[in-house]
Amino acid sequence: MEDKVIKMEHGAGGELMQNLIKDLIIKNIEKKEAGGVGLDELDDGGSIPLNNFRGNVVLTTDSHIVKPLFFPGGDIGKLAVSGTVNDLSVMGAKPVALSSSIVVEEGFDMNKIEEIMKSINKTSKEADTPIITGDTKVMEKEEISDLIINTTGIGFCKNPVRDSGLNSGDKLIITGPIGRHGISLLSFREGFTFESDLESDVQPINSLIDSALKAGGVTAMKDPTRGGLATALNEMASKSNLGLLIKEDKIPLTDGVESASSILGIDPMNVANEGIAIIGVKKNKAEDVLSELKKQKKGKKAKIIGKAVKENKRKVVLETKVGGKRFLEAPDGDPVPRVC
Asked: Which family does the entry's similarity section mention (predicted)?
């Protein structure tokens, strides 16, 4: 019998990764009921109720590997801080502190380390979320590739927002154009040049999410990182036991992403984003939330892209630009590996 081994596709955020986490990792960890959002729920983080304080502490962690380390619009340091801050934010938490642990390969350029650390500091200041602890390890040459950063974040909220919280009739809002991170990295990595400038969307969006929460009516949130918008929408539909009806012509795309995707033969729905979120909102509050998002530069291109429905439970139906309908499936893996 052939040995079962980990493949690159298992880390790309699609269906293979979800199966790996459920069938191999979570299955072998003893779960203790904490009363909040737990490991089994596979949300963007976990929470523990603090009954004495009438609220919840939210915790998330992520390891970041990206090639190249520096790319149009950002670098691994900006990516690490933004990714962790955003995971806390889409659970409804106010990020309050981060840790940053670095594993670096022997022979790595110290000037690049300094540049990455300055980027980490700048991004944490932008997110108003300080780095308060960390760790540094050096590995022998070729034991790792360049650099790995792990960031852990802690935040607080009254009640966590779950990605499973959609109700029938809820509207779905995307806070900005999709596909910018994955498509720009692929283009830069492979040396492709296009008429339009392509840049990653990597950025902390906690202030943007905070404005949506203050407007009210938010029922579910998720940031479509690995696996892209298609994977995130399918997860939300499956966990909420509802169907999602999405209008393709409402999904915001930059000209650069649209043209590059067409040339490269890649669907921008399937690639990672690092500076947007999907927000489920009660029907009567959707326009209020959209209005608040558009007041910020990071939310200027936010749009309502669809709604949750009772039909086609646990499926995502895409209403195409030409008027037809098809199921939008989650990809098995990410066509652009090592982008987050």
From this structure: Belongs to the HypE family.
Mode of pairing for the β-strands spanning 94-105 and 147-157: antiparallel
| CA dist., res. 78 & res. 121, Å (int) | 9
Distance CA 217, CA 219 (A): 6
Measure the CA–CA gap between 147 and 23, rounded to whole angstroms. Answer: 29
Q: Which of 17-31, 127-141, 188-202, 300-314 has the least mean pLDDT?
A: 17-31
Q: Averaged over 119-147, what is the pLDDT? A: 94
Residue 135: pLDDT above 80?
Answer: yes
What burial class does residue 25 get, using C-beta atoms within 10 Å of its C-beta: 0-12 exposed, 13-18 middle, 19+ buried? exposed
For 228: left if phi > 0, alpha if psi spans -120 to 50, otherwise beta; the answer is left
Mean pLDDT of the chain: 89
Going by C-alpha positions, the residue among 87, 73, 59, 176 that lies closest to residue 119 is 73
**Domains of the chain listed by start with CATH number:** 38-157 (3.30.1330.10), 171-327 (3.90.650.10)
